[in-house]
Specification:
138 residues, alpha+beta
Length: 138
C-alpha cells in the first residue's frame, strides 16, 4: 500500500530508534512510503525521497519477525514500478543485491545525490563505521 510516513506511528518510531542509519528526512518531509501489510500488521516499509525531479528509493526496512519471507523484494519491486528512474544510497556490500534489480553504481555522483553522499561520508560514516555508494537505474 502506498501512503505517507506520518500515518504510521510504528514506522516513525522505527526510524527514530535507528537514527543515524535510518534517514530522519523521511519523517521531516512526511515522505511517501510503500507499506507492507500482512494480516493487518505492518511488516515493513520503503520510503521515497524526492528532491525536485530526483527520486531516491530510501529506507527499505522489514521488521525482524517478518524477514526472509519476500516482503523486502515485494516492496522494492512495487516502488521500482512506480519510479522507474530512481537512485538509492547503500553500502558497497548491498550494491551487489541492487545490481540484480537493474541498478548500477554511479562512480562520481553529481547534484543532490552527490551532496547526500558527501554529507553521509563526512557526518554519519564516522558514527556508523561505513561509507555508502550512489546507485541509479540503468
Amino acid at each position: 500500500m502506498k501512503s505517507n510516513v506520518l500515518r504510521f506511528p510504528s514506522i516513525i518510531w522505527t526510524v527514530i530508534k535507528h537514527i543515524p542509519t535510518l534517514d530522519p528526512l523521511v519523517i521531516l518531509t512526511n515522505a511517501p512510503i510503500f507499506v507492507g501489510i500482512d494480516q493487518g500488521k505492518v511488516v515493513g516499509f520503503l520510503s521515497i525521497k524526492k528532491f525536485g525531479k530526483t527520486v531516491e528509493l530510501g529506507t527499505l526496512y522489514v521488521y525482524p519477525s517478518f524477514r526472509k519471507q519476500g516482503y523486502a523484494e515485494q516492496l522494492f519491486l512495487e516502488a521500482k514500478k512506480q519510479y522507474p528512474k530512481s537512485y538509492l544510497l547503500c553500502t558497497p556490500k548491498m550494491s551487489e543485491l541492487y545490481m540484480r534489480y537493474g541498478f548500477q553504481i554511479v562512480e562520481q555522483p553529481k547534484g543532490i545525490m552527490g551532496l547526500r553522499k558527501r554529507l553521509f561520508d563526512k557526518f554519519i560514516a564516522p558514527f556508523v563505521g561505513y561509507r555508502i555508494v550512489v546507485m541509479e537505474t540503468k
